[in-house]
Structure prediction request, 351 residues.
Amino acid sequence: MEFTAKQIAEMIGGRVEGNENVAIHTFSKIEEGRPGAISFLSNPKYTHFIYDTQSSVVLVNDDLQLDRPVPATLIRVKNAYEAVARLLQLYEQMKPHRTGVDTLAFVSPKATIGKDVYVGAFAYVGDGAVVGDGTQIYPHTVVGDGVQLGERCVLYPNVTIYQDCRIGNRVTIHAGSVIGADGFGFAPSQEGYDKIPQIGIVVIEDNVEIGANTCVDRSTMGQTVIRKGVKLDNLIQVAHNCEVGENTVMSAQVGLAGSTKVGAWCMVGGQAGFAGHIHVADKTFVGAQAGIISNTKGNGEQLIGSPAMDPKLFFKASAIMRRLPEMYRELNDLKKKVEELEHAHTSSECD
Prediction:
């Protein structure tokens, strides 16, 4: 596929500076630009690359000020990062989608398969499963008995959806993820631990994306719920009976213990951990490696550290932490001086 700068500008509401007829057919990072590619510049740290990039077209913000002319054609937009995201989405939508059931796949005769569905080799679709129109199921993926898959979902290779789970429309689940495995429920007994059957399900609403090797466990009873618009990175653990609110995003290696409720529009950094049976309010920002052990206060709160605290307090505490060895030596020196003074005082009284 090939487009001119003028055509691209029309797609995204941009303004062309330079040759509007220059053609592009691929994307490239600005520092690795090449003829025929379109790049973008949104981070000021990369501005110096625009003067030498070989890309034919560069998307830039309206307010970008340049020190000298650049060889590339520019398309000025309100937000270059959002514009390139939109172009990439359009590019992805233009790709041809596979359809049909591979002869090496197994689809139960009791399953319901919509129009224009793709089921790859060695994939499995169980009894009573429902697969919506345009959904793509890649090789070696398992769609268990009674699973409901919405329209235009994408399940990449080796995804496993356990029985009876419900997946909305336009959900993307990347390779190796497991939806609906048993929650970690065991009751201690004199002989060890008795397993508590996990008889609930997982519900994933529309427009969710789940990264590779992420696990969302089924509930003990009821539902583990991922609300619409949620984006989960790779290697995340969502335990039984949790709920993740609308449009919340989580980076890699986040862990949610059982029955944690995370609100809408939260942002969670990598390796953050959440204790069980707590509620995190809407629009909470949780920094990387933070440990959330209790309910959060309210909308817009920022938390970092473990146990998590306000960033200002955390940085003050960190500054003190760095001085602890020095403070410890000073304390010992003071202790010795006090002991010497006490000894001298006692000796003078005896005299």
Q: What stands out?
A: Residues 256 and 274 are 5 Å apart (CA to CA). The chain has four helices and 39 strands. The mean pLDDT is 95. The radius of gyration is 28 Å.
